[in-house]
Fold:
Amino acid sequence: MSGPVAAADAPPTEPDASHPSAACVEVTDSRIAEVGGVPIRRGLPQRGRRTVGPWCFEDHMGPTQVTETGGLDIGPHPHIGLHTVTWLLAGEVLHRDSLGTEQLIRPGQLNLMTAGYGVAHSEEATGTYRGELHGVQLWVAQPELTRNGDPAFEHHADLPSVEMDNSVATVIAGVFSGHLSRARTDTPLVAVDGVLHPGASTWPLRPEFEYGVVALSGSVSLGEQVVAPGQFAYLGVGRQELTISATDAARLLLIGGEPFDEPIIMWWNYVARSREEIDTAHQDWLDEHQRFGRVDSPLLRMTTADPPWRRRT
Ligand code: MN
Structure:
């Protein structure tokens, strides 16, 4: 779920495509990969679409089966400059971090970790859970004001739920239809889980936000466009509302926010503003510098090869 960002997702130095100034529906196929032994579909970042608001990473994990020998196993790894948002539809995952947090997460709950200047965490199978594992992990880029600040962790077991026509929306972060999640936000953003019944549902949006939609299960129609699991729909800015229809029951994730105007560089598990910042962070991780603390986990500490700009050819 913690996903290392590779050049296959988006080259670290390639500029983003221009963000349309009007509403649109651009559907792209997510990249299929595997993280920690679990199949994932990566909707963000992609070539030409690196951010939606401050959201800079989206992995749709599973559904897959957790067995005695197979489950999520992501050893301790570092982050800087981002929040991780973990949201499950099925299963259980154990989060451990260098702040000393040990938190089991279940469906309908939010784990929100703030990396700031540096944090490390692991994401582990519980050892006892068997059955389906299905969820998403997202990253939110932190703004200049907070990105060099302290790390933090929040667990929210109780999030606002909004009954709409033909759908039930859970407000994971931000404000939706007048309901506020208590989760920390450093810039204006929203994340909503929607359970759709067959029929049409109209959701209120904010015209100054840009939005993206991930079909988590079942297909949803956004106007003429059908979005299925494994696809990411970018919706642009300028919408007052969004009509979503489903022929059969479906589940979706809506993310949005004010377009993020700070140019970010992402590599592996780092979100920064320059290669030098990434080089320093990665060297600090390799040196086991106190910046990233220590995670009390039975799993091996993760590492990776140097960034492409430091490799000898
Ligand atoms: Mn991670």
